[in-house]
Design goal:
17 helices, alpha/beta, binds glyceraldehyde-3-phosphate, about 525 residues, single chain, about 40% helix, 25 strands
């Protein structure tokens, strides 16, 4: 621990033994999962460090959490789904204030548990707080829009958005706070009730928020359980009582979870899945700025982002210049501990270094070369990024989403080469296209917008800003997330309609004046 600055040290193993079900933070006395950090195990003689324990809860407890969420929703009759929008917003405002007090604790755990550097860990926290505040504002806007009666063909209608029911929320390890909350928060505020199980890494950092959740929302609205994905999610899905599966992860997990649900038409899906976003470098690209964007695109957080550039296509005419500058820039990158704020940091998954090395070996066997001097150098918790060229479609690094530090490169003469690969790919999230000539770019953009859901011009792929839509085609996503779209994804339009006659007009007037309904009202919140 000598190398760890005092403020980031973890001096004792964190024994987290609590979970939240039905408005009660309960003690867990059963089996526990050990939480290890790979940060300090840079050589074979150093083992990952035990930094904590979390409950390894069983399927029975998963079902208790389900029961709690189910009775809090109570077929839409529960306190939360029928509560005034204004009151739900108040609960969320109270939550975010409490959450903000946990910033330093959570940032420290983000570094230890997933190896994210300090600046990015702080960014993840702050971005999440902004996301919650923006969600509140957006919900007020949506509610205002629903505060007016429409009258068409003699039918008067008040149209709003209502909750869907019980949401099972499963987030990813690379953004264990931000991406999970980008599902959980809109689901909660729209009046759904939730069961949330943290990702396989980034679990301890959820513990400091249990009180905030419990103090801010009525019992059963947020249930937080810990354990293995299969053990927890399987009985919950099999029950048929889940209305929305909200998951950021792998498409194979999403498919097996959906398959467990006995009434598939009842199940809504909000999924952010894998991607293989290409960076396409045309012959007139500005090389220096393209190199910069491709470095951050391929290697921010060691390439462990669903939006990372996972394959580069370089035009033959500029291949030499681009690759020489790019490989030099890769070799200059520093690997460090998160508080040193280097771009490269240790990988949290103990199996990842071997997986990345295997991808490199497989590519070499099939004819690729490592172009950069440091590429492929291995230590126990890391593999230095290898720029692999020429990559062909029989290599695993071409076929698989590497989600780590290795950069496959293909050269092309005609733009039809990357476009054909994108058309045949199982994924369709984003692309980055680097070039200047409008005559060339125009038709390429026109094709690509129909293959992916965001075309980044001379810029790396990314999710943010969070007000923009984040989605994908094919196996990359189901439903759209953004501050606004997420509120839509976790709700459904529902309305009250009446024949426009004296009787109904009087009833509606009376209802509005007497404030007897939380749904039929024409006031709104500022
Ligand atoms: O892992 C996928 C994330 O949504 C990527 O988000 O582009 O902001 O890093 P980001």
């Amino acid at each position: 621990m000598n190398t760890v600055p005092k403020e980031f040290q973890i001096n004792n193993v964190i024994n987290h033994n609590e979970y939240l079900i039905d408005g009660e933070i309960c003690k867990w006395n059963g089996k526990q999962t050990q939480v290890f950090s790979t940060l300090l195990c840079d050589s074979d003689d150093k083992e990952p460090l035990l930094i904590g324990n979390t409950p390894e809860m069983s399927g029975d407890y998963a079902l208790k959490a389900l029961e709690s969420a189910h009775s809090a929703f109570n077929y839409g009759q529960g306190v939360w789904p029928t509560m005034k929008v204004y009151e739900r917003i108040k609960c969320m405002e109270s939550f975010v204030i409490k959450m903000m007090t946990k910033r330093e604790e959570i940032v420290k755990l983000l570094m230890w548990e997933i190896g994210k550097n300090l600046n990015d860990s702080r960014k993840e926290f702050d971005r999440t707080v902004d996301y919650i505040n923006d969600t509140i504002l957006e919900y007020k806007r949506i509610d205002r829009k629903g505060a007016t009666f429409q009258n068409k063909s003699g039918v008067r209608a008040l149209i709003r958005r209502g909750p869907l029911g019980v949401v099972l929320c499963l987030g990813p390890y690379n953004y264990p706070l931000n991406e999970t909350f980008a599902l959980l928060i809109p689901a909660i505020i729209m009046g759904n009730t939730t069961i949330f199980k943290p990702a396989k890494h980034g679990v301890l950092l959820i513990a400091p928020l249990l009180d905030a959740f419990n103090d801010s929302f009525p019992p059963g609205v947020v249930n937080i359980v810990f354990g293995r994905g299969r053990e927890i999610a399987t009985p919950i899905m099999k029950s048929g009582k889940i209305d929305v599966l909200a998951l950021i992860g792998h498409s194979s997990s999403a498919i097996s979870l959906q398959d467990l649900h006995p009434q598939k038409n009842r199940l809504r899906l909000v999924l952010g899945l894998e991607a293989k976003n290409p960076g396409i470098i045309l012959k007139d690209a500005d090389i220096d700025s393209t190199v910069k964007e491709c470095i951050s695109g391929t290697l921010s957080f060691n390439g462990q982002r669903c939006t990372a550039l996972k394959i580069l296509y370089v035009h033959e005419d500029i291949k030499e210049e681009f690759l020489s500058k790019f490989t030099k820039a890769v070799d200059e990158l520093k690997l460090g501990l998160p508080w040193e704020n280097t771009l490269l940091t240790p990988l949290p998954e103990t199996s990842k270094p071997k997986y990345i090395s295997d991808l490199i070996d497989n590519a070499i066997e099939l004819g690729a070369k490592i172009l950069n001097k440091n590429g492929g150098k291995k230590q126990k918790n890391f593999v230095f990024p290898a720029v692999l060229y020429p990559v062909t479609n029989d290599m695993n690094v071409y076929k698989e989403e590497q989600f780590g530090p290795v950069i496959p490169v293909i050269s092309f003469k005609e733009i039809t080469t990357p476009i054909k690969d994108m058309s045949e790919s199982n994924y369709g999230q984003q692309v980055s296209i680097f070039g200047k000539d409008v005559d060339t770019l125009g038709p390429i953009i026109d094709s690509m917008v129909n293959l992916v859901c965001r075309v980044n011009l001379n810029s790396a792929c990314q999710r943010g800003p969070d007000i923009y839509p984040f989605t994908g085609r094919k196996d990359s996503a189901v439903a759209t997330l953004s501050v606004h779209d997420a509120l839509r994804s976790f709700s459904i339009r529902t309305f009250v309609a009446s024949k426009d006659n004296e009787l109904n007009r009087n009833i509606l007037r009376d209802m509005i004046d007497s404030k007897k309904s939380h749904f039929i009202r024409t006031d709104y919140y500022l």
